[in-house]
Every structure is written in C-alpha cells, then in structure tokens.
Amino acid sequence: MPGSPKRSTETAQSAAGPLTLVLYTSESKNKAYTVGYTDLPGGIQADLSQVIKGAAGAVKGTATDEADRR
Fold it and tell me: Quick one: which of 12, 34, 42, 46 is 20 to 30 A from 56 by CA?
C-alpha cells in the first residue's frame, strides 16, 4: 500500500446487529487502496463472496477477480 494509510471506522447494520468496520485507505494519483476488517460476534459466519461484492458496490465498482484465499 503506497503512502501512509488513514484509519477510519464505519458502522454497518447486520442481522446480528451493528458491526464496526475498521478501514485503512491510501490514495495515490488516480488510485485508491483500502484494507479493512470487522470483528464478528461469536457464531456468525460471513459469506466472503458477498462481502467482496458489497464492498465493490458501495463505491460503484465491480470485483474483477475473486480467488479462494483460504
């Protein structure tokens, strides 16, 4: 990630209640890089494919590659 990323937080509503999203974003000329995480309550599982599509859609983008990283 180029530069010094800026940390921010957002709250997202879910079936399990509100979740805190922690994001680190760095911008460079005409590009932006974002990495984030969310601590899920015990017993909750996330569908990573839907998370990727939701994140891309939130910025009016599309996911161009989705590989299994397990």
Answer: 42
Task: Evaluate whether residue 12 is within a structural domain.
Answer: yes
**23: Cα within 13 Å, side-chain hemisphere:** 13
3-state secondary structure of 18: strand
The pTM score is 0.65
- Please state the domain count of the chain: 1
Residues 9-64: tens digit of each pLDDT: 999 888 788 989 999 999 888 888 888 888 888 888 878 888 788 878 887 888 87
CA distance 16 to 31: 33
CA–CA separation, 22 and 9 (whole Å): 5
Distance of CA 67 to the CA centre of its chain: 16
